[in-house]
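Late entry, evening session. Most of the bench is empty. Finally got around to the prediction I had been postponing all week. Sequence below, unchanged from the version circulated by S.P.
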Amino acid sequence: MIKEKMKKTHVPFRLNILFLFVFLLFSVLILRLGVIQIVQGEDFERISEQTENVTAKSSAPRGKMYDRYGRVLVDNEPTFTLTYIRNQNTKQQERLEVARQLSHYIEMDTDKITERDLKDFWIITRPDKAKAKLTEEEWTNLTSKKAYQLQIDRIKEEDLKEITDNKDELKVAAIKREMDTGYALSSQSIKKGLTRKEIAKISENLGDLPGVDIAPDAERVYPYDETMETMFGNLGQIPKESLKSYTIKGYEQNDLVGISYLEKQYEDLLRGQKALKKYVTDKSGKPIGEPENIPGKRGNDLVLTVDIDLQQELEKILEEELRKARSRGNPYADRAYAIGMDPDTGEILAFGGTKYSSKENDYIEYSYGTLSEAYEMGSVVKGASVLTGYQTGVIGHGTTLYDTPIEIPKTKAKASYSNLGYVNDLTALERSSNVYMFRIAMKIAGYNYTPNTAGIPWNRDAYNQVRYHFNQFGLGTRTGIDMPIETTGINGGTQQLGNLMDLMIGQFDTYTPLQMAQYISTIANGGQRIQPHFLKEVHEASQVNGLSNIIVDQFETNVLNHIQMSEGDLNRVQNGFWRVTNGSNGTATKYFKGTDFTHAGKTGTAEVDKGFNLTFVGYAPYEDPEIALAVVVPNLSSDRNESVNKDIARKLFKAYFDLKDEPKSAAPTAKEEKKEAS
């Protein structure tokens, strides 16, 4: 009984302790709520009204481009840019006042101003005149949007002359135009390349220029001047039709992007990581406190496959030889192309074109044409023609055919440059027999040739068969080069038997110089059609001059297809090409005598409306090819005693082997460029 009583008195005591603890806990909680509501209430009310973070982005330098030996080809020159960031609630008149102040400190190009820009500026700066453009009734009945458009429509040329005739006001309009282009809390470039004098003036007055800043920037420079400049590409504003896709990737409307060639092809690798300023704003859009700064990062550096020394030699040789050809009485020969390619990897070693500009009365760099212009290439395609004959079974190794003019009703006699008599497959390549190729075409078409006999049936599917085999070498199809554009040439379709015969000697369908380089590379390497490419490696941006050792990616050799022809057939054609540059009757033997490297190739002549296209494809060394060449010189007046195609090829081969083991010179610096220019 006593123990039971003790238990009963002990339980309420524990409960009292618990109640006391709970009371104290609630007291602390109530006190804390009171402090938050009474003492810190205004602070938390302000925080609760804040919007989400707003981020402003500033441009970052693009990655550089280097040649295969680490010499910089495309660089960034440090410069300073005038930038402007407006708040979400910045008024038009406030921006106008800033523009007016800036007009006293900088020079400004006014060429970008459009008529619409001028009309908008006229309305802002002349509110009373702008209001008078509409009647009271129109102001009452029209929506603000329609009223504004009606004001725009009623502004006359004489109104705009008030601005255009005043250089100072026109400058203000140009500055404000750039200020209005950007989004709120987004860094907008007003002027790139500020002078020291402009920087000093702006810096002195930054306190009176809300939103204005001077930011370090970079401009593209080319240490080797115009060498290969076209292929590097240009930067520009995002095209309107592509704006949505770029926006999804995080770009802003006014960003500069690669718009052509390598700059465009590798935009994702070259673009820098922008510097960020993270703002916290209140409901009105006004920033609260200082922004959080996150530094940007330069884009990745690209190592290209090109040897800049060989590239310079190529461009020099093309210009020299084209000049000589024109001086020999070839006024329509206004361009020449050449490509050097590693046949085993597809790496472009040198790649260029030169063009005579009558407007400038000078020769200009014209690499663009190597992948965008197509020509009838002539007899250089005969390697593919003979291999097609093997593959279709209409000829074999050593097959002998009679070379004499082919006479078909209603068609001009089709012949070689002379009657060669009986020739086999190797001799046909060595001496460039047209008739041998014509007879292969007739056999593929099932045409039982009898001179001057009409009505003989033939199979038009022969066109498809020939083109199928030609395509395996890259003729008439995309090469796959790492460029945004390339043409495939013109397919002449299915026409007469005579056109099929012309197709076999390269005088019907057209091909690009690049396709010819891929074609000869496929023969040189034993039957693999390899994707040609400019990109070799991608390196992480270095914090100092030169390439970093961190390789982000490498371009792996990409075999597009293996041609469906035997090794024996390929060896046979390689032997035929060796005879072209080495045989006693080779069409190029006398041009390649005395070289200290072995070689093989094929010459070509295509008769066209403006005269003749002279071409050459070849590779060296013959036993283990390191370089494959394609040379194209269109529109010569005569092919007699004209050697421009062979001269270019020989000099390019020699340049490659002469440069191969030479020490590589460093790229010129910006200071050296300026010194040379002065």
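Two things to note before I forget:
The radius of gyration is 37 Å.
Confidence is low (pLDDT under 50) at residues 1-9, 673-678.
Will write this up properly tomorrow.
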